Amino acid sequence: MQKIVKVKPNSKEQKIEEQPDGSLTIRLKSPPLDGKANEELIKLLAKKFQVPKSHIRIKSGLSSRQKLIEIDTDI
Fold this sequence. Notes:
The chain is 19% helix and 35% strand. The chain has 1 helix and 5 strands, in the order E-E-E-H-E-E.
């Protein structure tokens, strides 16, 4: 499964909001430095979709706020 994700780093709270178009807006506490926000994003998505972190991959937008995420839900 692939999801378009819009990331908002340095937020006061962690939050995942599902948009009407099926994309996700995710607020992260971590700053966008040294991959910290991407790590937090992967942890949060793994928890939401109940898959191991290794099953989540950032396909594009590694250093962008708009990302394409691939989630392998076949366990």
